[in-house]
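Course assignment 3, question 2. Fill in each field.
Student: A.L.
Task: Predict the tertiary structure for the chain below.
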Amino acid sequence: MRTGIGSLVDGNGEVSDRPESIVETLRLQYEAVFSSPRGDSMVLDPVEFFDGTEGNTEELNSICISTDHIRNAIHELRVNSAAGPDQFPAEEMCKRVEFSSVHIL
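Answer field:
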């Protein structure tokens, strides 16, 4: 069984087998592909956040999503964003959304 990672080509085309360099290359690749959570959207207490008791329904019922929220979220999508499980391709469809009816969903 192999226990280590071999050499890796970084963004500059240089080959490295140093663990520190490999870690940095993989970190940069990850950051380029995945977005970081916004500070106001981070879950600080997962136990409380995912608590399914009836006491949390007040917060869920008080959420108000406006057409501006939806429009801003769609405009934040990168043109080359991958489609999610719903197969909704951002590049083809996001800019053509009829905002007046989407917020009903």
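Instructor remarks: The chain has six helices and two strands. The chain has two domains: 8-37, 60-105.
Grade: pending
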